[in-house]
Each structure stands twice: as C-alpha cells, then as structure tokens.
Automatic annotation (TrEMBL), chain A:
Protein name per Swiss-Prot or TrEMBL: NAD(P)-dependent dehydrogenase (Short-subunit alcohol dehydrogenase family)
GO molecular function, one term: oxidoreductase activity, acting on the CH-OH group of donors, NAD or NADP as acceptor
Species this chain originates from: Zhongshania antarctica
Source organism, top-level taxon: Bacteria
Gene3D superfamilies tied to this protein: NAD(P)-binding Rossmann-like Domain
Automatic annotation (TrEMBL), chain B:
Superkingdom per UniProt: Bacteria
InterPro entries, A to Z: NAD(P)-bd_dom_sf, SDR_fam
Similarity section: Belongs to the short-chain dehydrogenases/reductases (SDR) family.
GO MF term set: oxidoreductase activity, acting on the CH-OH group of donors, NAD or NADP as acceptor
PANTHER family named among the record's database cross-references: SHORT-CHAIN DEHYDROGENASES/REDUCTASES FAMILY MEMBER
Protein name (database record): NAD(P)-dependent dehydrogenase (Short-subunit alcohol dehydrogenase family)
Pfam entry (one): adh_short_C2
Length: 256, 273
C-alpha cells in the first residue's frame, strides 16, 4: 500500500480520523497537506509529521468556503506541481431527535458534511483530471443505516455515499483516471463522538454509548488508526480497480 | 517488499488459499507470500500448487502445496493436521475455490444446481467451520484470524445467464455476514468478510464471456468483452487478478482490524452504476 511521493490533501486533519489518516499516508510515503479550520490543531499535526521525518505542510481550510478551496488547491499545485489524493474527511455530528432538530442545525450539518464534499471533489477533479488521482469521501455507517437520534447526520452521510458513486461514474466515463470511493466508519473513539456525547446529559450520553457499544458485534469502538488504514488502501494504487465502492469498517455493525 | 508494507504486511502469519492452482487464487497466494506469510496452497490440482510453491520457495518465500477437495470434510481435517505439522499456526483462510455454471435458468438442471451449491457454498461452510474452530480461543491454533470468502458481483446484482452461479455467491455473501457477527459476538477474534470481484481476466471469466454468447446476448466473445467494457464497467476494462489480490491482502492483514461482515466490491464501478 504505497503512496510514495504522491501529494495528498486531508480535510479536518487536526484531530481524529483526519489526523490518523495524515499519519497513515505519510508512513506510506505521501507528501501530506494537513488542512483544518483549527490552525493550532492542524499545525500541531503537520509539525509532528515533519519532526518524524515526513514531508508535510499545514494549510488553513474552511471546507464550506468555495473560494478558499480554490486557493488551497491552487497553492498545492503551485508548490508541489500536483495533487493526487484528496480525503474529504471534515465533518460534524449532533445527537438529537427529529422533533428537536432546527432548520439551522440541519443546514449546518449538511453544509459541512455534504456541501463541502461537493466543493472539494469538484475542485480536486479540476487539477487531477490531467494525470489521475484518488478521492476518498468519508461517509459513515450512518450513511447506510439509520439511527433514531442522528437525522441530519444520517441524511448528510447518505448523500455523500450516493454522490460518491455519481462522481465515480462521471470520472470513469470521462477517462480522467480518477477513482472515487466512500469509507463508512462505525463508531470511532474520536473527538467527534466524544464531543457529540458531551453535549448530552451524563445519563443520556451513557445510555447512548451503551446502546451503541452493545450493538457492535466486535464489542468495542474503533481506534482512528484502524479507519486510517482502510483510507490509505483506497488512496493507494493497490485499489486500482475500485471506484464507486463502499468500504465499511464498523466491527460488524451493519452486518447484523 | 514485506518490510515496506507496514500494517499491510503478513509477517509471521500462516495463510491457506483454496483453488490456489490458477487465477485469482494463485495471484492471492503469491501476494500473501510476498507480504511475508507462510502460504499453504491448496487445490484439487495439486501439481499446479506444487509448481507455484516451488517458484515462491526459489524466491526465498515460504510456501507449501497440499491436495484439497474443498467439498471433502476429510481433506479439510488433513489440511489442519498439515498446518499443525508445518508452522503450528493458522491466521488466514481465503475460500477462493469455486466453479461457474452458466446458461438460461430454464435450461439449468437440478444436478447442476446440486453440484455448484456443493462446490461454491458447502465448501465455504466446511472451510469456515474448520478455520473458526481451530482459530478461536482454545482452538488448536487459538490466535484468531481473518477469513475471506470469494463471492462475486453476481452475488449482489442480477446478470443474464448467472442465476445458479449468482445464487451460490449470494449464499456466500450471507454466510459471511452471519458467521462474522456470530464469531465477533462470541469473542472468537475471527473476522469474516466477502470479496466481490467484477469480471476478471481468468479462465472462469472467459467462461462467463462465452456464456453471454451461448445464451444469445452477443455474437461472439470479443463482442461480449466490448459490451462489458463500453456499457457495463464504468472504468472501461475487465479486472485482473492483481486487482483482487491487493484487496484480499487488505482484508487478510491487520490493516482491516475493525472490518468484519462487510462486502468489498472490486469491480471497476460496475455496482455503482
């Protein structure tokens, strides 16, 4: 699973799956552009990679900002001459039932989780189509099955799953040499999950966590590094015949 | 190569590949050996396995051949004993052996169905049972493992001429999920996943192309391949055995440590369309 000298952009790379993916890609030989809206977190990850002897740089990116996407991708091409891997990872989650969800909350989740994936994918295709690439969109098991307390998140991740297939077919039809696949992590011990839980009362959070872990056949949440390994596989040329596929990593959750 | 692979490497692991004498099985066996595993190549055509194992040995890789009729419980038992005598370990099982029988459903016979069910489904059941009971805690090897079952896109979607073959692959898909959940729930440390290739350039792939001719979908094999590439496979090419071996390595290795009960399609976008 070799990403030698490939230039990779990871969004939401300051924490969690994004951070672990940067480390996984760097270990596989990639030059990693760490992007996040949180400059301190992103810089920390980039500096850690550099200290470990990898090639990395931080670029600030608000994934909902169309002009910023254009700027960041243009800067990458100006600096490295190419972009071959994009990991659309940035995302948020809010735990609440449909009756308590606001239109504002719904739009926020869908803007960050779905609109941003559209913006990033379109921008990456602009520069990848000359010599090919791999785009990996981080959906979720919640893009495949439902959870009663995640209506907006479910909708946004389901959109990413279907969007990924559409773009995979488009790029194949156009012979761009760009593969596009979706990754569907189950529950992962990351700040996204702990953050969402922290906004609930202690008893509600415990009940939610217990319900979730009891539903995972392997009986535990994933580590972010376990998800990163699957993302690196799809990013690499070893997934050469995969496009429009879904890679589920969920400890058996959706197999039930 | 093995050092470069990191978490995708198989150093110290022992793998069994069924149907390893040709096609996808052969490519997977070679890939696993190159990734550092000791590979037991099994097939009813043991001569082919012996030749491949000798080639791998000559490259300094660990491989051995054994005759295995995947439908024979006695052969599976003998395989287990051979593993005990070789490395006394078993980490990976690739249930790859299988046959293709095509034709229009109305022309298929009960004898054909019984035969293909036995080779494509029963064998996976026996192999999975043998592996699970010896890999689980307290089993004769007891250190967990990864079982990969070769299904097909024909186990996911409908294709003319593929009814009885596709039914076996749908069964393999389902058997994989149920056993994955069962083994996880009961703490076996054994992951089970199904791999779904599209049409691959192998002898079996050629059979499937010929079948499109035989049932009258197209005039000849070249036309069948052209139709697949232009109208059915978004990436515009048939798959090759290395495409599948790479994905099998991911599922075999610790890189997929949180992956169980999934379907991994490697089909050039076929099922996305």
């Amino acid at each position: 699973m070799d990403c030698n000298d490939k230039v990779a952009l990871v969004t939401g790379a300051g924490v969690g799956i994004g951070e672990a993916t940067c480390k996984g890609l760097a270990a596989a030989g990639a030059i990693v552009v760490v992007s996040d809206i949180d400059e301190a977190a992103g810089n920390r990850v980039a500096n850690e990679l550099i200290a470990a002897g990898h090639q990395a740089v931080f670029m600030r990116l608000d994934v909902c900002d169309e002009s910023r996407w254009h700027r960041v991708v243009s800067d990458i091409v100006a600096r490295f001459g190419r972009l071959q891997i994009l990991i659309n990872n940035a995302g948020i989650a809010n735990i609440c039932g449909i009756e308590d969800e606001t239109l504002e909350g719904w739009r926020k989740t869908n803007t960050i989780n779905n609109d941003a994936v559209f913006l990033g994918t379109r921008e990456a295709i602009r520069v990848m189509k000359a010599s090919g690439g791999s785009i990996v969109n981080i959906s979720s098991i919640e893009g495949i099955v439902g959870d009663p307390m995640l209506p907006a998140y479910n909708a946004s991740k389901g959109a990413v799953r279907a969007f990924t297939k559409s773009v995979a077919l488009y790029c194949a039809d156009k012979d761009y040499g760009i593969r596009v696949n979706s990754v569907h992590p189950g529950y992962v011990a990351t700040p996204l999950v702990s953050g969402a839980l922290s906004r609930l009362s202690t008893s509600d959070a415990e009940a939610f966590a217990q319900r979730v872990v009891a539903s995972i056949p392997m009986g535990r949440m994933a580590e972010a590094a376990e998800i990163a390994k699957g993302i690196v596989f799809l990013a690499s040329d070893d997934a050469s015949y995969m496009t429009g596929s879904e890679l589920i990593m969920d400890g058996g959750y959706t197999a039930r | 190569m093995s050092n470069k692979l990191g978490v995708f490497g198989l150093e110290g692991k022992v793998a069994v590949v069924t149907g390893a004498g040709a096609g996808i099985g052969e490519a997977c066996a070679r890939m696993f050996a190159q990734a550092g595993a000791a590979v037991m190549l099994s097939d009813i055509n043991v001569e082919a396995c012996e030749r491949i194992a000798a080639e791998l040995n000559a490259e300094g890789l660990q491989a051995k051949a054994i005759r295995l009729d995947v439908t024979s419980e006695a052969d599976w038992e003998a395989l287990k004993i051979a593993l005990e005598g070789w490395k006394n370990r078993w980490d990976i099982l690739l249930n790859n052996a299988g046959i293709y029988i095509g034709g229009m459903l109305e022309n298929n016979t009960v004898a054909q169905v019984s035969k293909i069910n036995q080779i494509n489904i029963e064998s996976v059941f026996i192999g999975t049972r043998t592996a699970a009971e010896s890999m689980k805690p307290g089993g004769c090897f007891g250190s967990g493992g990864s079982i990969i079952n070769l299904s097909s896109i024909a186990g996911l979607v409908g294709v003319p001429g593929h009814s009885i073959y596709g039914a076996t692959k749908g069964a393999v898909r389902s058997l994989s999920k149920h056993s994955a959940v069962e083994f996880a729930k009961f703490g076996y440390g054994v992951r089970v996943n199904s791999l779904h290739p599209g049409l691959i350039e192998t002898a079996m792939g050629d059979q499937a192309l010929q079948d499109f001719v035989d049932i009258g979908v197209v005039a000849n094999v070249d036309e069948a391949a052209a139709l697949l590439k232009s109208a059915m496979i978004p990436m515009g090419r048939l798959g090759n055995v290395q495409d599948i071996a790479n994905a099998a390595l991911f599922l075999a290795s610790d890189a997929s440590s949180y992956v169980t009960g999934i379907e991994l399609t490697v089909d050039g976008g076929f099922c996305a369309a």
